[in-house]
Amino acid sequence: MAKHFVIIGGGPAGNTAATYAARFGAKVTMIERDLIGGAAHLRDCVPSKAMIATGSALGTINDAQRMGLTNVSATLDFDALRRRIGSIGERLERSTTTLLESQGVKLLSGTGRMVGPHEVVAETEAGLIELEADVVLLATGSRPRIPEWAHVDGERILTTRDAYPPRTLPEHLVVIGSGVTGVEFVHMFKSFGSEVTLIVSRQQVLPLKDPEVAAALEADFLARGVMLLKGAKASNGVATADGVTIECTDGRIVTGSHALLAIGSIPNTDNLGLGDVGVELINGYVKIDHNCQSSVPHVYAAGDISGKLPLSSVASLQGRKIAEHAMGLHSGPHRHIDYEKAASAIFTEPEIADVGLAEVDAFAVGRKIRVTKVPFSANAKALIEDDARGFVKIISDPATGVVLGGAIVGRHAAELISVIALAVSAGLRVADLHESLFVHPSMAEALTDAAE
Ligand SMILES: Cc1cc2nc3c(=O)[nH]c(=O)nc-3n(C[C@H](O)[C@H](O)[C@H](O)COP(=O)(O)OP(=O)(O)OC[C@H]3O[C@@H](n4cnc5c(N)ncnc54)[C@H](O)[C@@H]3O)c2cc1C
Hints:
By secondary structure, the protein is an alpha/beta fold.
């Protein structure tokens, strides 16, 4: 008899596992309480990138005289933007649902929780549905972290999920948190024309990134008039009829029309019945091993609740690996995920992307590395596209030449990093990149130059 997979959560982790498990011959039931596609498609990743793309188009049009065009200008239509975000979400939800149904996955609309080691219930509009599972996958994602002092009202004090887009364009947005999400929202609202103040708790935006990369972004923010409040930690916030006042621990006070919290997320592991079935948590995240198995071996966890990298790409890969492992198809050199080799990007302008070993981390542990770096200022395609900001940096092993990591700041960085990601995961050497014949003119030529 086919193994029965019960999956709680229909984001990238859940729906990728469902598709593969069904393809491998399992009977699959997936419970989703909101929309198929998960927060990734409908609440976080995709809507934020869609808003950024609109801001980018606006900037390109309004800067068009630099490309030799005149009389071109555009203004933002907030209602049209809202419709655009909605329609992308609907299309993604439809296509994901169609894909899952075409593989024979049974979709239940409701809230799932475990009530025994092999028993899951789905609370649906039609009542409780009891399911007997051979394999359970917990893939319930995460939600924005809200500090106690913040009285989020969705009007003046917002989480990222209230911002696709907010009811009105903020005149002056105060962004709290300067990690990846915070800086993307700074860029997004600045490109829509809002004044933006960014509260940075340390002395560097993107505190976990290479300082050179962070400095390039800070320079761009300052040039665009973003106000940076460094070494400041928000400790209180009050919404008034026409604005917000944010207090910092050192007594500084920032006022604006709106505030947006971007201080991380918390895993959706509450109310899943995990304690009763013995699934161990660490700081609210499900503790998993290298096969994504929890402390109860037939209960797997993937995506944001697994406490690994909170990226859609990682969630999907974990989902596929789980389907392979649970179906006994787990073999070969790539059977475990190497999280160190995950590429990630920040969709600001210039874009930022990195993969593998960072220069700063190598120095921290005294590891010998070779760093080669070229700016885009000499790259023909960058000049053609009128944006030669940024650089490519490649980190390699000085003894073997093997590519260990890289960082790119510049136009299309999120696409270009894939070349370095492939080199890192395939163990290629800098010489392999240097000998490759890339298209001319292309931004990718900077990679072969940096690989000298
Ligand atoms: C603003 C923002 C931008 C981001 N941008 C990017 C990006 O550019 N690239 C990238 O790779 N990542 C990005 N991320 C991260 C990415 O969105 C997450 O890593 C990804 O969504 C995790 O996928 P998941 O499957 O774990 O969970 P989710 O996508 O959160 O899906 C989980 C699903 O489970 C459902 N659920 C929860 N509890 C239950 C329950 N009890 N019963 C039934 N259903 C339940 C939820 O409704 C949800 O649909 C971004 C995140 C944020 C906040």
